[in-house]
């Protein structure tokens, strides 16, 4: 698995954004549309800010998705990932199409609808992170399945994942964090042609070490990235394991 280490979080974000932009421009030179999946998390803020400033991208030919969403939050709750991505990306660039996950009153139907949208054409790029428990999207260790037959599913969030949302200042308390969510599955994410994985911060260091050096196992769902043909991990000095860099 490819990885890059930058001295600071801001430099990491700029490095990742520059590579995403280069890939986008290249794809848009060869095909009519590009389909991308984005993660919504504070860890992605630096990369998304730098990506917004990248020149020479015809965003009107980009179709956007996101990879997970809480179930049970009000439509206007600021913690909803759809709203976070609108604020940080989707409403700030002229995307051609933005497909938002809306669990609504029937999450099971929302799952089927979103899976159909994803299946309409190949996904070119995934921009993602890794959780402190090694999750990718909301595929926590207890529910991650490397052979999952589904593209999108409803999951129960584990306690480590829910606590991370509090530690990231997304929720005031553990009990405020929803217990269920909709997520793209591991196989669905890995079918993207290219993956850019941005992981800053000391709290992620052990998850990064397991991703790079541990067994490929659902105990660290991000370890599945090692089986992808074109995935790059972007780290800062705080998240890089000892001896790397």
UniProtKB/TrEMBL annotation:
CC terms in the record's Gene Ontology section = cytoplasm
SUPFAM superfamilies with a match to the protein in the record: NagB/RpiA/CoA transferase-like
Highest taxon in the source lineage? Bacteria
Domain Glucosamine/galactosamine-6-phosphate isomerase, by residue range, is 8-137, 176-230
One GO biological process term: N-acetylneuraminate catabolic process
A single GO molecular-function term is: identical protein binding
- Its protein name is Glucosamine-6-phosphate deaminase
Taxonomic lineage: Bacteria, Pseudomonadati, Pseudomonadota, Alphaproteobacteria, Hyphomicrobiales
